[in-house]
């Protein structure tokens, strides 16, 4: 794979100053799984009593690490827990070798950290179908455990990158009557991004005290409104993993009725999800698609994703062409209920089409001028009901082809 040297034009100005989350520490290493001269393995260790929840890809060809994590999430256990992540190789479609690699890594991590094997979770991201050289990862785990640092989350964000052009992080705080709660998260993702998770690895840590069942319910619900509402290229990965750890170190207990915490967590999820889209391979524009007036919310999301995943729409956006006819096309093919003569379409606040025809007030100059912005909003009202949905995507440029044409080289 060619080196990624140009940072996305949609990148944040800087990586956020992520706070220390008491009860969890991080370390990174250069194991040489695929890349040279950069870190590619991350170890996170959370203290005894921490809880963990997760959501994963729904791909039928899930990787060995994903299958292992799914088996372990929700199991009882109160000892320390460990997360091991490598970049450069996804350990997917690797048969018995893949399962053996997971076993070797989890056993080595358990030995190094003192965590039970059922409390060791692994993730791998990178090329599919090539055996993971797990011996390189096993070889660095002992040293990683001796260099764990509570302030190492920023370095961890860099170690998990593949075609990402920048590390992704986010943080929020929640002030409660019982004290302050901190939440910090990191993510990687740039291509093979579509709902049902994507080629994303996301790790979120909080010092709140949250029962595992409550944590899982929150993660699952908020994920559906954030990471499951983004798409870069409509391709769903074999390796998607989101893990959230609650250490309890703040002493503040969060239950299912804690609206303040859920609101803050939702904001963090959305921030990280948007950062993934803004780092879409070759992307030059960030696009929000809002659909209203559908028969159901599910129909609205179907329409929105049809628009967001259309190569014709995405390339038109890249070319700054206000081609609203392609939006009409995407709605018509989505499979959800629609009536041509009831549709209304806006580019930003510009009414483009209504009542089955171009709006009388619309001008091509206005549309073309709007499309020059980096952040765009496409709004569609179906005119049939009260269903709504919002999804986020990016444009499709020559840069996407350049990155993926030589991904394995």
Secondary-structure blueprint of this entry?
Elements: E1 24-29, E2 41-46, E3 51-56, H1 64-72, E4 81-89, H2 95-113, E5 120-127, H3 134-146, H4 153-159, E6 168-176, E7 179-188, E8 201-206, H5 212-224, E9 241-246, H6 259-278, E10 286-294, H7 297-309, H8 311-318, H9 324-333, E11 344-347, E12 350-354, E13 357-358, H10 364-370, E14 375-381, E15 387-394, H11 398-405
Parallel strand pairs: 4-5, 8-9, 10-14
Antiparallel strand pairs: 1-2, 2-4, 3-9, 6-7, 7-8, 10-15, 11-12, 11-14, 12-13
Helix pairs in contact: 2-3, 7-9
CATH topology assignment of the largest domain: L-amino peptidase D-ALA esterase/amidase
Assign an overall shape: globular
Task: Say how many strands there are.
Answer: 15
Q: Outline the low-pLDDT stretches.
A: 192-198
Average pLDDT confidence is 93
Strands in their spatial order, largest beta sheet: 13-12-11-14-10-15
Radius of gyration: 22 Å
The helix/strand series, from N terminus to C terminus, equals: EEEHEHEHHEEEHEHEHHHEEEHEEH
Largest sheet: 6 strands, mixed
CATH class of the largest domain: Alpha Beta
């Amino acid at each position: 794979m060619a080196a990624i040297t140009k940072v996305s034009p949609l990148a944040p100005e800087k990586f956020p100053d992520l706070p220390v989350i008491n009860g969890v520490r991080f370390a990174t290493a250069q194991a040489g799984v695929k890349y040279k001269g950069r870190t590619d393995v991350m170890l996170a260790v959370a203290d005894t009593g921490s809880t963990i929840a997760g959501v994963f890809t729904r791909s039928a060809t899930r990787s060995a690490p994903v299958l292992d994590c799914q088996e372990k999430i929700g199991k009882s256990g109160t000892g320390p827990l460990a997360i091991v992540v490598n970049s450069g190789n996804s350990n997917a479609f690797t048969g018995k070798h893949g399962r053996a690699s997971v076993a070797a890594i989890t056993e080595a991590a358990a030995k190094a950290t003192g965590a039970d094997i059922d409390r060791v979770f692994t993730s791998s991201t990178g090329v599919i179908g090539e055996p993971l050289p797990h011996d390189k990862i096993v070889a660095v785990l002992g040293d990683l455990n001796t260099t764990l640092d509570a302030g190492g989350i920023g370095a961890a964000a860099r170690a998990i990158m593949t075609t990402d052009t920048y590390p992704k992080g986010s943080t929020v705080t929640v002030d409660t009557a019982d004290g302050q709660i901190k939440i910090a998260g990191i993510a990687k993702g740039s291509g093979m991004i579509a709902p049902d998770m994507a080629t994303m690895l996301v790790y979120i840590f909080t010092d709140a005290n949250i029962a595992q069942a409550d944590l899982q319910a929150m993660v699952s619900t908020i994920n559906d409104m954030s990471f499951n509402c983004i798409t870069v290229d409509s391709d769903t990965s074999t390796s998607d993993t989101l893990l959230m750890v609650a250490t309890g170190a703040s002493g503040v207990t969060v239950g299912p009725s804690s609206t303040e915490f859920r609101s803050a967590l939702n904001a963090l999820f959305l921030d990280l999800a948007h950062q993934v889209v803004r780092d879409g391979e070759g992307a030059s524009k960030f696009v929000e698609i809002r659909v209203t007036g559908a028969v159901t919310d599910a129909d609205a999301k179907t329409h929105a994703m049809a628009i967001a995943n259309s190569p014709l729409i995405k390339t038109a956006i890249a070319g700054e062409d206000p081609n609203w006819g392609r939006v009409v096309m995407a709605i018509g093919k989505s499979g959800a209920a629609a009536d041509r003569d009831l549709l209304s379409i806006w580019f930003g606040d510009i009414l483009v089409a209504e009542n089955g025809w171009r709006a009388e007030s619309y001008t091509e100059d206005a549309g073309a001028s709007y499309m020059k912005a980096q952040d765009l909003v496409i709004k569609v009202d179906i005119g049939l009901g009260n269903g709504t949905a919002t999804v986020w995507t990016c444009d499709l440029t020559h840069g996407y082809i350049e990155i993926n044409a030589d991904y394995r080289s």
